[in-house]
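Researcher: Let's walk through a ligand-bound prediction step by step. First, I give you the protein sequence. Second, the SMILES string for magnesium ion. Third, you return the three-dimensional complex as structure tokens. Ready?
Model: Ready.
Researcher: Here are steps one and two:
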Amino acid sequence: MSKFGVMVMGPAGAGKSTFCASLITHLQLNRRSCFYVNLDPAAESFEHTPDLDIRDLISVEDVMDELKLGPNGGLIYCFEFLMENLSFLEESLNSVTEEYLIIFDMPGQIELYTHYPVLPTLVNFLRSPGNLDIRLCAAYLLESTFVVDRAKYFAGSLSALSAMYMLGLPHLNILSKMDLVKDQIRKKDFKKFLVPDTMLIEEDPEEIAARKAGIHYQPPVESDDPRDKDALMSGAGFKRLNAAVAQLLENFSMVHYHKLDCTDEDSVGGILSYIDECIQWAEAQEPKEIPDEEYEDEE
Ligand SMILES: Nc1nc2c(ncn2[C@@H]2O[C@H](COP(=O)(O)OP(=O)(O)OP(=O)(O)O)[C@@H](O)[C@H]2O)c(=O)[nH]1
Ligand SMILES: [Mg+2]
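Model: Step three, the predicted complex:
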């Protein structure tokens, strides 16, 4: 019996837990079953109570108190502890059947997705036919407001690429919180952000804004002098670095984004259809009989 799941990942505050909550509401409205797993040991509250919660095994707060670790060290300790106690996941997930979508709500510490080896081990355990045998995909969220600052947008895209390579899962990249930008950027203009492209780095958003407002634009003086603090974030060296990152992303051409607005049910449903396609959920479902009472109601 196969199991199906999505791991919701991305940097801190990207909207992961909000997306999990909207996805659960959408699944419930469409009479689909889901199993919500919180894997963030520092999480505080949830719209939907998790069916399985890492905090019942270990919480960052306890680790910080007892081992005198900071929040990031505490999180890493919690994940290492989880790896030593995988039976905690196995016991609950073993009985989940194929009609369920298992939703893993992940923490926002970026090191988990870039270089720390604990997630690949967890993913292997969840997918391995000898263990839980979950058909898993990744939903990597990045805030759509990042597109306004090209350096942030490309750095975020690089972290998405890194997660793709590190985990080797079918991967969906998602620009979240679209409601925050839809009044500022027209739909037509937003299209270019769905695939990172070197042309975007050539554009200076401040210059475009000034041009639109009919104001004369004076570009910042470029300098490579390491003693000049401003030069680090706006100088020629920084521009060259961003151009190189943009070129790298374009060369790999593996990152492209889907848009998500959690305030719009159709948008959440759209992302769910991509998830279903990635893990081929529909193919594994048995045709369902309509229970008698429901059939009578419709008449
Ligand atoms: N406007 C808007 N705000 C959102 C959306 N999704 C999340 N937020 C807000 O963004 C903030 C962070 O959302 P969370 O869902 O907690 O983000 P997260 O990625 O789970 O955060 P961590 O678990 O701390 O990494 C909250 O204040 C949310 O209300 C969205 O689609 N639109
Ligand atoms: Mg969260």
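Researcher: And what stands out?
Model: Residues 12-18, 40, 108, 176-177, 179-180, 261-263 surround guanosine-5'-triphosphate (ligand 1) (CB under 6 Å). The longest strand covers residues 134-143.
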